[in-house]
């Protein structure tokens, strides 16, 4: 009896030793989606299936679009496992991935695809569709799809907050209003996709030449704004001039064409000497300075201390 109990105890110890201390869990493969950021299907999240998905104006396309700038069979996305490849199907206006025209391209998570001036979507690879959807909807609510900087709605809310904070704490606050000179000529000469390309590239210049705490936003059309918390007028002018000179010296290459452009800038600064009663007055001051820059021949900067506010 004692021998049997000893034997059972040894068997239990042996089972404990040989039992794995962790279990191997089969990883769930990620799903592929495209989320429309601009155009007729704005906000729609489409799940890509294995094989080929054709996007175009034709009613027979897997994802049909009512967009005159899109060809009947414009492009296709082929999904093989987690690998997704987009291919242009000889479209009239081309397929662009991250502002670069492609014939065939292996997509990465987060790639932005544009197939007309009105249709922009994003490729997403994730295993959490609901979280992805809500995260991207939030981004769509605050980001501009063409330039990937903040939109006017977000800018307005942030400026309200920063203006109140600066007033309350008696700290400085500056704002730049930037307009692209003769931008219509670019659209007329090279097409709207070229215009969007230039807007995107100029936004990259803004982002690279401002501080992390600054807020860059597209105000509308070819107009941008930058909020500089804690920034005085002298610092804002230095930043503005660096941006202006960089853009004036940089040709933007689109489809082999070198596109040159300049910007006009207006700067308003809230400090102990300014009498802005509201954030709207602050915007008007920057806009007035921008107007003076344009009247002065464009490609220059005007600040609020120089202008009659």
Name the assembly state.
Answer: single chain
Structural class of the secondary structure composition? Answer: alpha+beta
Helix content: 25-40%
- Strand neighbour order, sheet with most strands: 2-1-11-10-7-8
Strand proportion, as a percent range, falls in 25-35%
Mean pLDDT: 88
What's the total helix number?
7
The poorly predicted ranges are 9-27
Query: What overall form do the CA principal axes indicate?
Result: globular
Largest sheet: 6 strands, antiparallel
Radius of gyration of CA atoms, rounded to a whole number: 27 Å
Order of helices and strands: HEEEEEEEEEEEHHEHHEEHEEEHE
Number of E-type strands: 18
Distance between the termini: 103 Å
Question: Could you describe the 3D structure shown?
Answer:
This protein is of the alpha+beta class. 35% of the residues lie in helices and 28% in strands. The protein has 7 helices and 18 strands. The strands form 4 sheets. Strands 2-1-11-10-7-8 form a 6-stranded antiparallel β-sheet, covered by helices on one side. Strand 15 and strand 16 (257-259) form a beta hairpin. Helix 4 (183-190) crosses helix 5 (192-208).
């Amino acid at each position: 009896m004692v021998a049997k109990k000893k034997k059972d105890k040894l068997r239990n110890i042996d089972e404990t030793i040989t039992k794995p201390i962790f279990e191997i869990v089969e990883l769930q493969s990620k799903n592929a989606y495209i989320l429309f950021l601009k155009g007729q299907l704005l906000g729609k999240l489409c799940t890509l299936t294995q094989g080929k998905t054709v996007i175009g104006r034709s009613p027979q396309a897997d994802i049909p679009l009512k967009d005159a700038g899109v060809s009947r069979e414009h492009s296709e996305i082929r999904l093989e496992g987690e690998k997704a490849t987009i291919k242009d199907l000889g479209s009239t206006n081309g397929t662009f991935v991250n502002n670069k025209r492609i014939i065939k391209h292996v997509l990465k998570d987060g790639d932005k695809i544009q197939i007309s001036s009105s249709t922009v979507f994003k490729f997403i690879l994730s295993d959490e569709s609901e979280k992805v959807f809500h995260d991207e909807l939030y981004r769509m609510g605050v980001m501009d799809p063409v330039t990937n900087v903040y939109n006017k709605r977000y800018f307005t809310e942030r400026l309200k907050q920063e203006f109140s904070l600066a007033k309350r704490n008696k700290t400085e606050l500056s704002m730049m209003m930037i307009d692209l000179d003769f931008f219509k000529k670019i659209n007329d000469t090279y097409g709207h996709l070229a215009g969007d390309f230039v807007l995107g590239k100029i936004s990259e210049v803004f982002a690279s030449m401002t501080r992390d705490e600054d807020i860059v936003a597209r105000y509308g059309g070819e107009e941008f704004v930058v909020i500089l918390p804690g920034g005085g007028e002298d610092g804002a002018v230095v930043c503005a001039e660096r941006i202006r000179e960089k853009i004036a010296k940089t040709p933007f290459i689109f489809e082999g064409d070198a596109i040159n452009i300049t910007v006009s800038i207006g700067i308003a600064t809230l400090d102990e000497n300014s009498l802005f009663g509201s954030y709207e007055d602050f915007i008007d001051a920057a806009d007035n300075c921008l107007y003076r820059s344009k009247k002065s021949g464009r490609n220059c900067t005007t600040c609020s201390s120089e202008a009659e506010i």
